[in-house]
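Sharing a chain and its predicted structure for anyone who wants a worked example. Both blocks are below, sequence first, tokens second.
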Amino acid sequence: QVQLVESGGGLVQAGGSLRLSCAASGRTFTSYAMGWFRRAPGKEREVGATINWSVGRTYYADSVKGRFTISRDNAKDTVYLHMNSLKPEDTAIYYCAAGPYPPGSWSLPSAQYEYDYWGQGTQVTVSS
């Protein structure tokens, strides 16, 4: 059974940093992409950043580009989201997700429907 467990959320002041972790288990993720999505209050869930396990290719939404960094530790089956220069508008529930990324694929999946597995989410609150 696939499980994605997020951790690391919390309350931080604007300009601060947080690191989210997503521990993955239950299958081999070599041919998968991992994504961090977020849902802000009153808004639709949107993609933040994605990465593929094997090569480490990354994608960032414009809203987080230059401030957030996605990385993975293959030995630990864990994906991270390093968030710097946080803004109040980054306040959201952050979800980890896993979706197929077959060998030879180029563009990383960035739409929610492309992801099969989801974690429960972790709350990030940025105060002004």
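Comments welcome. The chain is about 0% helix and 50% strand.
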